[in-house]
Structure formats: C-alpha cells, structure tokens
Amino acid sequence: MFSLIIPVYNEEDLINELAVRSVKAIESFTPNYEVLFINDGSTDSTLRKLIEVRKQFSRIKIIDLSRNFGHQAAFTAGLEMALGNYVAMMDGDLQDPPELLPEMYRKIKEDGFDIVSGKRLGRKGKRFRFTTNVFHAFFKKVSGMEDVENSGNFSIMNRAAVNAMVQMKESIRYLPGLRSFIGFRQGYVEYIREDRLGGEPKMTLGKLMVLGADAIFSFSKFPIKVCLFLGLFGTIIFLIAGIYVLLAKSLGFALIGWSSTVLSIYFLGSIQLIFLGVVGEYVYRIYKESQNRPIYLVKKFYDAETE
Q1: Distance from C-alpha of 160 to C-alpha of 115, rounded to nearest angstrom
Q2: In this structure, which of 94, 167, 237, 260 has its CB flanked by the most CB atoms within 10 Å?
C-alpha cells in the first residue's frame, strides 16, 4: 500500500484541487493507496470540505487534530497512522506538485533508495525566497548534513525509514533534519517549487524563524561555539585593555574620560546576555522535552468506516 500525508490548515480554497490532483497522480502508478489529510485545527471550512471530498474519493482519510499543533506535529500524526509500505509527505499548498509523486515512487522502487526527497532547484514567486535559501545553506554548513540543503518535507520513504522516523520522539521537531539523521540510502528528484496557488500563506516570516531556530538548536552545536568564540574574544579584548591601563599608569599617562570604560562594560555585558539567551534556548528545549506531553492529540479520525 502507498500512503500520502498532507497536513492542511485553513486551506478551504485549495482542498478540491489538492484532492483531485493528488488522487490522479497516485492512481497513475498504484491502485492500492490511502490519502491522509491532517486537519491541523483549521478555523475555516477546511474540515467540511474534506468531508465532502471523501464522498468522491473513498480512499481519503481525515485525521482531525484537537487544535493547531503545528506543521511538524501534523506530519508526525500522519507518519504514526499511515499504513503504507511506502509513505509520502507533501505540503497542502500545492507548491510541491503531486504530479512529481510517480517519478519519486519509481525512483524509490526501481533504484533501491530507502528515501527519495524533492530537491528544489529554484522557487517561483518572491516570498521569503532569499531568507529560505540563506537558511538552507546556513543549516547545511552548521549541521554537517549535506543532504538537507534545499530539501523540505516533500519526500517518499519505505516502511523501514518510516519506522525509524516514528522512533524519534522529541517534542520540538524538524523533520527534514530527522530524515537526514536516520541515515538509510537517500536519493533526490529535482524540481522547481511552484508559487502558492491560492489562499493566504501559512508560513510567515516569524514561523520560518522559529522553525529555523528549532532546526539549528536541535541539530547543531553552532550556538555554543559562537558563545565560546565571543567569550574568548571578550577575554582577549579585556587583557589588551588591562595591559594598556597598566602601561598608561606606569608611564604617567592621564586617562581622560569614561568612554573606554563604558564601552568595555557594554561589550562584556552584551556577551553575557548572548550567553544567557543561548543557554536559555537550550534550557527551554530541555524543559519541553522533560514535560513528555503528546506531540499531537486527535479529535476524530475519519477512515473508510466513518460515517
């Protein structure tokens, strides 16, 4: 069986086309499939339209979460409930074209890959293009994960890779990073990412920055290295300033004004605040993990037997 996971949040304008294109693409290479729509706490008519679409396509299932848990949590719900031997993840805004699924499926079946991801050669539209490209390049550099660059959630995994992903239980999640972390043999299908077809974008700049922070703090010690280098730099500056003061006093130079003193205090104080901020981020993540709360909660599951 083949499973396709699609999280949606307030996507009432796209549901019908998303379902039609996804089902058509899947039926071109297999008759045995399921499409799992994860309704991530939508506040518009998304759920109602999903229920209507189920009347047309019997193999569509709906996982209705109790509230908005976030994109990564919604994908996790789909991964844990998918039944397929091959499981695909795809965003619900049609920027990742469902028509690419047959090629990805062929590649994972015939070429012996465990995971096949969509690798973006470029993006249509200008929204956050520069910011996203910078993040992917920076994350690749600091994490050491060569296969993450320009690769998002769009992917297909075999059951062994899915089982490995499901074992990752951290609350703060970055699935492309986890997908790289588990290893296995990974391949790619290159494509140009489409602009959003309709509706309002859900990935705002603020959410993108939070996701970027989660990725960096979860998979890299770069923030700690920055603190170390800043601390060493501050120590060197302090030693130089101390030597200068001692020489000035021994040679009888008059130290006029407080500018150097104030600047030194501000400089060292800023470094300490950066340290506290970085340590605070790690402490917060440790606290979130220690709570051991569910990553998501399901309100209702609309499967083939649900009326």
Answers
A1: 10
A2: 94
* Cα 172 from Cα 178, distance rounded (Å): 11
> Whole domain around residue 250: which residue ranges?
222-291
- Report d(CA 119, CA 148) in Å as an integer: 9
Residue 214 has pLDDT above 70, yes or no: no
Which amino acid makes up residue 165? M
In a domain, 117, yes or no: yes
How far apart are the C-alpha atoms of 247 and 1, rounded to whole Å?
78
**Token couple for 193:** 């990412």
Give burial (CB, 10 Å; 0-12/13-18/19+) of 68: middle
- Closest to 72 in 3D by CA, of 270, 210, 197, 187: 210
Residues 276 and 187 in one domain: no
Residue 255 token pair: 């130290």
pLDDT band (50, 70, 90) for residue 297: very high
pLDDT digits 0-9 by tens, 51-85: 999 888 989 999 999 998 888 889 999 999 999 99
Domain count for the chain, please give it. Answer: 2
pLDDT at 37: 94
Q: Which residues contact 169 (CB under 8 A, 6 or more apart)?
A: 295
- CB-based contacts of 103, cutoff 8 Å, min separation 6: 189
